Backbone:
């Protein structure tokens, strides 16, 4: 079975490491912050326990976790078949990591980035073998979301693209093929257009997150409304994505409203801190909507 190095033990990296281990892969989860690695293992154990209790996985959580090793540097890049970078959406940081991977990873190792907005070609340009760089954009929470965008950079080889599609399928996810490299790819561009309008309607007092979410689910068949999706992904993540999209010249997809920024400044980051557009109980379950509550 192939070995995988996942870089970044945050919300996304943790989920990616977990689903890879669930699929039978041996994973090195890397972060320079030892505390982040400890929290990641705890989060994976809790997630796996819930999945087992609900009958979604048969293996004991301990068995899955035994396939995950925690590391604090990139030295294992020379030993693995796949590298998946999942650090924050900061282009310079990602380029720095790929520059190092280009020197340390084996020639046949596929280098993937989990960026949600930055064109793959921009990240690949710091490497000497751009043909092996691919975008694998997972959606969070990764263990529960069924799709991964497979994004072909300008110089990504057809073989790497095909192998990446097969890899995503091995994780029991549906690959969304993105054949041309543009900012935001496919799904985030579609969602951004809808979410921009939804934010404006809430910020102007025209409707509430609860009613808009209910309308999109009951009227348009969405499984989750835009504000539920935003809370699950993290409002700080959406703020960073918006800043990146604006930098890349995609202002038309960035909200004019500063509501997200105001919420992040108030510490309302979403489900992961139990408060965002909605509030949540200790187990992460959403609490009833308070119609008298004002957003920042």
Residues:
């Amino acid at each position: 079975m192939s070995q995988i190095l996942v870089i970044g033990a945050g919300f996304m990296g943790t989920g990616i490491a977990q689903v890879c281990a669930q699929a039978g892969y041996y994973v090195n989860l890397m972060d320079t912050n030892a505390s982040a690695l400890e929290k990641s293992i705890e989060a994976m154990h809790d997630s796996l326990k819930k999945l087992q209790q609900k009958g979604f996985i048969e293996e004991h959580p301990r068995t899955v976790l035994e396939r995950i090793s925690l590391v604090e540097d990139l030295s294992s890049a020379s030993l693995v078949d796949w590298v998946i970078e999942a650090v924050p959406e900061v282009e310079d940081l990602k380029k720095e990591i790929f520059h190092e991977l280009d020197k340390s990873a084996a020639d046949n190792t596929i280098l993937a980035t989990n960026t949600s907005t930055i064109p793959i070609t921009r990240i690949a340009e710091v490497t000497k073998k751009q043909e092996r760089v691919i975008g694998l954009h997972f959606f969070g929470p990764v263990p529960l979301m069924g799709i991964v965008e497979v994004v072909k950079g300008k110089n990504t080889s057809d073989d790497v693209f095909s192998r990446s599609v097969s890899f995503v399928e091995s994780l029991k996810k549906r690959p969304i093929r993105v054949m041309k490299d543009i900012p935001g790819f496919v799904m985030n561009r579609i969602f951004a257009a809808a979410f921009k309008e939804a934010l404006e309607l809430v910020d102007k007092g025209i409707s509430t997150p609860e009613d808009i979410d209910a309308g999109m689910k009951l009227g348009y068949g969405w499984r989750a409304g835009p504000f539920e999706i935003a809370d699950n992904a993290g409002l700080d993540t959406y703020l960073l994505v918006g800043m990146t999209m604006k930098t890349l010249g995609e202002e038309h997809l960035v909200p004019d409203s500063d509501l997200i920024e105001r919420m992040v400044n108030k510490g309302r980051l979403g489900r992961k801190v139990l408060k965002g557009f909605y509030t949540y109980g200790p187990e992460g379950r959403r609490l009833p909507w308070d119609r008298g509550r004002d957003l920042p």
Observations:
- The mean pLDDT is 94.
- The chain has eleven helices and eight strands.
- Residues 3-178 form a domain with the Rossmann fold fold (CATH 3.40.50.720).
